[in-house]
Amino acid sequence: MIRKTQALWAAVLLAALLTLPALAADKLPCVVVLATGGTIAGAAGSDVQAAYTSGQVGVEQLLAAVPQAKKLAALRGEQISNIRSQDMNDEVWLKLARRINQLAAMPDVDGIVITHGTDTIEETAYFLNLVVKSRKPVVMTAAMRPATALSADGPLNFFNAVGVAADTRAAGRGVLVVVNDWIHGAGSLTKTSTTAVQTFLSPQSGLIGTVAYGKAEFYRGPIGRSTADSEFTLDGVTALPRVDIVMAHENMDGALIDAAAAAGAKGIVIAGVGNGNLTEAAVKALAAQASKGVVCVRASRVITGRVSRNVELDDDKLGFIAASDKSPQEARVLLRLALLKNRPLADVQRIFNEY
Ligand code: ASP
């Protein structure tokens, strides 16, 4: 009798042990959705109207609109802000970055999706790429058409972003941006069309991967230091230093460079012509600001290529930094973080080379 009972318990235990891995395999990854606004949460008066308002739909509505995503991950949402991304600001950035770092540190969170407007997604992605301290997937997504539009692109973009965030292979590739079936790296994407659904390209370094109906393919890792490998931290940071971008053009003078410094800019990024060039008058004004301690970076308004030191301008003599492969808007984000500490110019240049 005792033998029979023991055998029965042993069988029950064995069955339980055998089903454990199956149960674990069935458990969906946990993905937290942080909504910030943008056209993906936008609404128009009709489904064929060009005029619309960004940031109208809340995170719960966004989740409810794509019930299919629940098959990819256990989802929960939080509203960080509900703004048009042209209104993105430091307060939201700091709140968002801190919340991502908290969530990413939780053992039960496997990935994070951030919904955002397309106008400034490349800046927010690059900022997060520098201050998020985790290798877990952090995936941003957006839409060009409001949620109410005919053929809205938001729902599939969102579904794909959840698929990527739930995929362990997305880990360690830096902050990703998933739009229109493509997976971009935070440091490589740029918006190329004001209205087309296929607006984002990674024209210099190519895609990180592609995603079709939630299933991803990955081609490469991040370029430059990012996330867990980044030296930048927001610990104790309550404000970011002001850095302005000034665009170079024919017949440029130094007025806007001087105005930026007068407005309190600690750094100035030039969206230069060609290889980060600017007129002689503007060079003079910039060098004068550099000699007063404003950190001056030469980037380019050209979409691909690098800006290297000492090509047509003598950066060593003029006291300038060359932006390397950073666009003016990326250079601004990187410089703001670099200027959180007092550094010699050589160290600022190292940062532009390494990130
Ligand atoms: N202006 C909108 C925004 O960035 C555009 C979009 O999301 O597509 O919020």
Task: Explain how this protein is built.
The protein has 355 residues and is α/β, with parallel strands linked by helices. It has helices at 2-26, 59-65, 90-104, 121-131, 154-165, 255-262, 280-291, 315-318, 328-338, 345-354, and strands spanning 30-37, 74-83, 111-115, 138-141, 176-179, 182-185, 190-191, 200-201, 209-212, 215-218, 243-247, 267-272, 295-300, 320-322. It has an 8-stranded mixed sheet, with helices on both faces. The protein is globular and about 60 Å long. The relative contact order is 0.10.
Give the arrangement of secondary structure elements.
Elements: H1 2-26, E1 30-37, H2 59-65, E2 74-83, H3 90-104, E3 111-115, H4 121-131, E4 138-141, H5 154-165, E5 176-179, E6 182-185, E7 190-191, E8 200-201, E9 209-212, E10 215-218, E11 243-247, H6 255-262, E12 267-272, H7 280-291, E13 295-300, H8 315-318, E14 320-322, H9 328-338, H10 345-354
Bound molecules: aspartic acid.
Instruction: Give the terminus-to-terminus CA distance.
Output: 71 Å
- Helix tally equals 10
Query: Structural class, from helix and strand content?
Result: alpha/beta
Rg calculated over all Cα atoms: 24 Å
| Bound chemical compounds | aspartic acid
How would you characterize the largest beta sheet? 8 strands, mixed
Q: Can you list the strand order of the major beta sheet?
A: 2-1-3-4-5-6-9-10
What's the total number of strands?
A: 14
**Mean pLDDT, all residues:** 93
Classify the beta-strand content into a percent band.
15-25%
Low-confidence stretches: 11-25
* Helix fraction by DSSP (H/I, runs of at least 4): 25-40%
